[in-house]
Design goal:
By secondary structure, the chain is an alpha/beta fold. Helices cover 36% and strands 21% of the residues. GO terms for molecular function: methylmalonate-semialdehyde dehydrogenase (acylating, NAD) activity.
Length: 508
């Protein structure tokens, strides 16, 4: 296709594919705009890779696996050490690009990169993470040990809301374990992801070990069904995640699918009032609510119901602006389509009888009149049958429910089908212990609004928020990206006594 032009006559960037160590201009006839959500400026065009290009990427990864799996652990670890140093060096530059294409504030973009960097740092410990086990003399002269070996070509499908962190959850750990990788970034904001991929190549990742293709459903389906793909890691919406899990599973792949959420924060009246309100507003409206771990539901228990006016007053103070502008608290949502969906859900809340305490629908941002902005929006009087409660809004909308007791709050949270994260705000150790014991959600925060664990632990979302039993980082992901081989061995000296034929199942 002919190169597109910007209004000033300069050539519009066309995002490339990475196949077998080469930056490839796609031959696709389908290209999509990458749009700045604050200005509607077209930043670049991304191709939807052809079937032949996807096949070529997988074939390159399959060839590279034959030698990469034999690469010493120390050599893989040193590449990860180099990568983490490069990410630190270039993080501010990448954050500017990330903010422009995704909409989040510069500070939040830097946080996006840093949380991914933590996983790369953890991958530098692969020498101890990938150890097997050994037991000597389990029977007469018999030893048993396990090997953790790479599984082959793996694929990753990442979402728009964390274009740095989520890719860094996936490919560094996968290739550190000795696998090769095919990455499909979000087609909405792949520019910052590609900058990280460039750094991985600079760090010494060999040709074919990391490959990148872009696209939509056709590319996703190709990754889920190709005979040479052994594992698929996905983060994104529930609808797509369920499709990926089912399709890849039917084709014999290992799959981890991290999906939607409806995260509750339960507030007891003994909680530290100022700290709790700050946490709720930050976790509810930060990143314009576009986090799978965002606090989207507040459950006020007992006398904590009196906190609603303070919650509203604090949310009203948040500054809505382009993410690149200093002092911005809430940037735009990622696309016009996303904005339209959020506005429909807000309208449904009004129609279904919730009280709109704070209405962010008609906000105007001077200088960014075309931006996809929605201001902080707060509902009270919400019931569990309303759409604003049953659906993941994925926007700057916080809904408030009220109950009388902690037991009622626990029952309410456990009745919700999602299980990504939840939090309790209290100064009572007894209440906290009861909550963490009885709550049926994978990740629990105590006076922590977004309980995403550090990479030494595993991301442990559950129930309707997760398909597959192993999380995307920490010790669990080493299990996901490796297969265990158990070896039982016995050695004889030349003058050993012959035991004769043994027809029983036991070892002697």
């Amino acid at each position: 296709m002919n190169a597109s032009l910007k209004p000033d006559g300069t050539t519009l960037q066309q995002v490339k594919l990475l196949i077998d160590g080469e930056w490839i201009q796609s031959q696709s006839q389908e290209w999509h705009d990458i749009v700045n959500p604050a200005t509607q400026e077209v930043l670049a065009k991304v191709p939807f890779a052809t079937a032949a290009e996807v096949d070529a990427a997988i074939a390159a990864a399959q060839r590279a696996f034959q030698t990469w799996k034999l690469t010493p652990i120390g050599a893989r670890m040193r590449i990860m050490l180099k990568l983490q140093a490069l990410i630190r060096e270039h993080s501010k530059r990448i954050a500017v690009v990330l903010s422009a294409e995704q909409g989040k504030t510069i500070a939040d973009a830097e946080g996006d990169i840093f949380r991914g960097l933590e996983v790369v740092e953890h991958a530098c410990s692969i020498g101890t993470l990938q150890m097997g086990e050994f037991a000597e003399n389990v029977a007469g002269g018999v030893d048993t040990y396990t090997l953790r070996q790479p599984i082959g070509v793996c694929a990753g499908i990442t979402p728009f809301n964390f274009p740095a962190m989520i890719p860094l959850w996936m490919f560094p750990m996968a290739i550190a374990c000795g696998n090769t990788f095919v990455l499909k970034p979000s087609e909405q904001d792949p520019l910052s992801t590609m900058l990280l991929v460039e750094l991985a190549v600079e760090a010494g990742v060999p040709a074919g070990v990391l490959n990148v293709v872009h696209g939509g459903k056709d590319v996703v389906d190709a990754l889920c069904t190709h005979k040479d793909i052994k594992a698929v890691s996905f983060v994104g919406s529930t609808a797509v995640g369920t499709h990926v899990y089912d399709l890849a599973g039917k084709h014999g792949k290992r799959v981890q699918s991290m999906m939607g959420a409806k995260n509750h924060a339960v507030v007891l009246p003994d909680a530290n009032r100022e700290q709790t309100l700050n946490a709720l507003v930050g976790a509810g409206f930060g990143a314009a609510g576009q986090r799978c771990m965002a606090t989207s539901v507040v459950v006020l228990v007992g006398a904590a119901k009196q906190w609603l006016p303070d919650l509203k007053a604090l949310a009203q103070k948040l500054k809505v602006n382009a993410g690149s502008e200093p002092g911005t608290d809430v940037g735009p949502v990622v696309s016009k389509r996303a904005k339209a969906r959020i506005l429909e859900l807000i309208e449904s809340g009004v129609k279904e009888g919730a009280k709109l305490e704070l209405d962010g629908r008609d906000i105007k941002v001077p200088g960014y009149e075309q931006g996809n902005f929605i201001g902080p929006t707060l509902f009270s009087g919400v019931t569990t049958d309303m759409q604003i409660y049953t659906q993941e809004i994925f926007g700057p909308v916080l809904v408030v429910l009220e109950v009388d007791t902690l037991d009622q709050a626990i029952a309410l949270v456990n009745a919700n089908p999602f299980g990504n994260g939840t939090g309790l705000f209290t100064q009572s150790g007894a209440a906290a212990r009861k909550f963490q014991s009885e709550i049926d959600v994978g990740q629990v925060g105590i006076n922590i609004p977004i309980p995403v664990p550090v990479p030494f632990f595993s991301f442990t979302g559950s129930r309707g928020s997760k398909l597959g039993d192993l999380g995307p980082y920490g010790k669990q992901v080493v299990q996901f990206y490796t297969q265990t081989k158990t070896v039982t061995s016995r050695w004889f000296d030349d003058d050993s006594v012959n035991d004769g034929v043994n027809t029983t199942i036991s070892l002697r």
